[in-house]
Specification:
The structure is a homotetramer.
Chain A lengths: L6 H11 L10 E7 L2 E6 L6 E2 L3 E2 L1 H20 L6 E9 L8 E10 L3 E10 L5 E10 L4
Antiparallel strand pairs in A: 1-2, 2-6, 3-4, 5-8, 6-7, 7-8
């Protein structure tokens, strides 16, 4: 299966339509995109931290949501205006220092709904710090 | 039942331990706290907006998470270092212009887990724009 | 707003299309249906019980799912073949003896998705034993 | 890591404490247990079916919940009286004929909370029919 958009194309589109995610400094970036999978990176700075140096829950939710958006754009192309309908996240372990990586896989790619699975880890570590599943509604094209 | 902390005390504590939520300008505030319930307000600005003037999903997740944190502090007092373990959110309708209000109610106040329900509306409107449930783990005191 | 089906009509339709829910003896029934709300009853018997006389989690999930199905039929009529796409449930307190009541309210009634909220209590008790939210996909008519 | 209970021991314990899951005929069984993972099988019969020959949502929720219970028993031993606190399930594709397999993996094994991931497939098929995550509270031993 061929992707509809490359990593650079998705990245440029995000910059254009979601400039707010970079407000206060660029922190989210795409590591790679493959068929049905992507990895996003959060270079956490002061905005995302909580007491004790841990990354905030909402920053991880944003990472999961953004990773999902990226793989949907890559798979469906820029025509898709996917809307998040449900997001469920379990926080498992305190993230350590270093970047957070969100690994997103498509569980179902339907005509109306796309469901994804996102595992979040601190770079270089095996244990998950959080795990999310999310559903996106794809408007009629 | 008497609350362990007033609205002003919780607000001051948030400013102290979570200064990051105000980075880029103060936008989250507490409207009121009652027994088992609170209402938080998000005065959305450019950081929270998405194309079409709608408020971003992660901003609403942060509002729900923060409202839960507020009612737990008010109920359990500043000793509690509650940790979010699960958050599930359904996005229901596009928010209109104006502030978002998150109305949080405690569903269960256990010794180890607190579960809350959060309904999010645009101010002055009846329809929910999002609905979340979340679980917090309360460490042994 | 007028309902498309009465309680008796929905009940008869369930008997016809879901006879399996009554296999081993009738235990689920509809208490009432109003605009956007319904209450289902589970008269738990040996099939639903767990050690200590408590009702099993899957029995409560089935009660929540069925209550949602009932209000969707009542609101949309028998043409709707709604499909559950997501169900999230928090188990809050051990149910006591006696029937379980599932109070289901529609949170969003969209053209493609219906989202509901279900609170489950032991009859005559205030405290929730479980709380669920669920999403149903409505096929094109 | 060594498991605290074998497949046969867990199976015997389930028969003893959860005889109700076999009421109306034995349908759930354990395929295998490994470190942190198990596979449960649902041999669906008339009780679990819905119009069109599809397996009911609550039957899949029960499969997910039971698989989680099995791996927790195997990992923690019979002293554990784990209680389900949260279950989130996405229904992805209609199951075909044949047995359903629930593949359960531990995402986090904490002292107080265990979080699992369960993928459900029709035997011999690649596509997931459902995906669940669930949290269990482990009482103090």
């Amino acid at each position: 299966m061929t992707l509809k958009m490359t990593k650079d194309e998705v990245s440029a589109l995000l910059d254009e339509v979601f400039p707010q995610i970079h407000e206060g400094g660029r922190c989210y970036s795409i590591d790679w995109i493959e068929s049905g999978e992507t990895q996003m990176r959060l270079k956490a700075d002061n905005r995302h931290l909580r007491p004790g140096g841990t990354v905030s829950g909402p920053s991880m939710m944003a990472l999961a949501d953004l990773a999902a958006y990226v793989i949907i754009l890559a798979e469906l192309g820029p025509v898709a205006l996917a809307v998040t309908t449900n997001l469920n996240i379990n926080f498992l372990n305190k993230p350590g220092p270093g970047d957070l990586l969100g690994h997103c896989k498509i569980l179902k790619k339907g005509k109306r709904l796309v469901v994804v699975d996102v595992g979040i880890r601190s770079e270089g570590q095996e244990a998950l710090v959080a795990h999310a599943t999310a559903t996106y509604s794809i408007p009629p094209q």
